Protein: diguanylate cyclase
Organism: Nitratidesulfovibrio liaohensis
Amino acid sequence: MRVISLRQRLLLLLAILSSLALVALGTFSYVRAKDAMLRGAESSMALQADTLANAIVSQYAGEYARAVASLRQDPRVVACLSGQPYDHQGLRASWSSFLRLRPEAYFVYFADLAGRVHIIQPQRELPPDFDARTRPWFRRAMEHPGVVGWSDPYTEFITGKTVVSTVATVDDPAGGKPLGVLGLDITTDGLRNILAGVALPSGSGLLVLTAEGHPVTSTGLGAALADRVDTTPLRNLARGTYTAHAPAQSGRTIGGTLGDNAGNGATYLDVDGERVLTAVRAVPGPGWRLVLLVPQEELLRAVAPIRYGTILAIGGMLILFAVLFAVATVGTSGRVGQLAEYMRSVARGDFTVRNLFTGRDEFGALNRHLNELVTARRDAEAALRDAERQHRELVENAPIGIFRTTRDGTINVLNQHGAALLGFRDVAHARALLDDSVIPLYAEPMDRLAMLDDLTAGEVVTGQRLRWYRRGGEAIWVSLYARRTGAPDAPEVESFFLDVTDQVEDTLRLEQLATTDELTGVANRRHFMARLEDEATRAQRYGRPLSVLLLDADHFKAVNDTWGHEAGDMVLRHITDVMGLSLRENDLIGRLGGEEFGVLLPETALERALRTAERIRAAVEDAPVAVRDAWVGCTVSVGAAEYRGANDSLDDLIRRADQMLMRAKEGGRNRVCAQQATPTCANGTDGSGRNDPAGSGQDAA
């Protein structure tokens, strides 16, 4: 039996250790590349899901929720449900304009608590026995009165189309109790268009679910899941009762309950034996769940060469073992040393392919296999860099503004779309003019501090509306979604924003229409009475004075009969203009009906109110209105009353002022009357036309 020398034993040991190192290197390369690829994919999917959820809120759900919140406060709807007269044709006309501007809105309607639908636009005939209380939208609104809500998808009664309804109760302004339900039927076409515009890997998809797991809309793989009979996986995703598994080699298991404000993680589903990575995000408002689905196989295509390289490495190990054993027996240690040095350089990160041996012997084969492994590792590194590049491109090409800042406001990342929204040429231009800080963007710096406090209290801030400045000082409204990122010792704030100036201005216009008299531009009766109630509460709480004036245009019918209603409208507008010049900024004028007006005087006792009333009366008398090349004189009669505190009701206050107004009318008009220990009236002129000193507020008091 041949005895192996010490030198040969050492060479054999070197062969074994080199083979093990080769296997370890291949396995390490594959595992590292796979983990890096999956981590990058999860991060990219999380960002994409956050961006898409925010876009759904800003461009679809939020817009219609705000529209319903505004429509339900329309005084004409409240009047109808209260059994009072209202402008039926005007309400239909405003609803028609509303629907023309929103092609996805299908029907708008409201019903009383008995289930009777009063108005539906576009107009449709309903069966005589139709009861709105049996419909999903009515039940959803009554379950949560006073809150804008969303129904599950259902088949619309008239056309048979599948819609979702945004609904809310119409509440009594005085008692706050529901009078009925207002609803807006919306197709899911706009939501589907938002999903269809998202670029996804092959075989992927998107799915929007209700909180109970019912599909709202879907694309790609999401549509395939939505059509299945077994909806248990969808219900589990929507309710958060899943167990999320990280990649098997990490040994981590993620479990949890999904809520509206949860910072949701990634999970894997088995779909027909294929692992699918999902990212679930709550969509605030409707309470929906957005699910992004990407097959794992699509994510790992870039590391396939590493998998085959590992197999080759094992084969290379066997060849290396055989070759080096042969070298140990024939004394070819020099060639083994070259291969060992090659492997050490690869371990140090040098992936240069070296053709050390070109022959067809064992060393040449081993060199070729080692070159294949090095090439696979180099390709995996390139794939990782490409994944990082794709992530950067996703941020740069996202259809919303994105920036990442330090806590003190220093800009670390800003995408091109965000710079364009703010009026800058490009990112470099924006960072230069802003001095690398987001603080100059805020119209109210305290808004950013409040947002940071909210982030400290929770993980995210969703749908916050802020006033920012564009380049040049133009003020705009933005909808902001922000979340905490970065390391604990270097926290960062990642924000996504959209320009919602048009939506905010539309809402403000709707609010103005709901509170303003269309003819004169002053407060309407509903707004005036609501403000009177607030001021009475404040006066009672702090023991402050409060007075009310009721004014009526004298001989107004004669103006209409003589000059026409257009002239009458001019007189009413003229009276309100003159009144405004005689009042303070915090006083309020309201048109209570016809030619009757009210003036709310906070922090004003009766004596001072009389002086104000006399000033208004005299100003109106001294300022005639030009009508058709003629001057038409106009006067007003005024009744004044002071709020008496806790034992006084607003109805009694208005009644006393109205009684004094009637006394002024009966006393000859063009005068001010107030109820004191002895009711007092003052007029502006005596019978001779001279100024009457008794007309001053002080004398009248």
Notes: The longest strand covers residues 475-487.
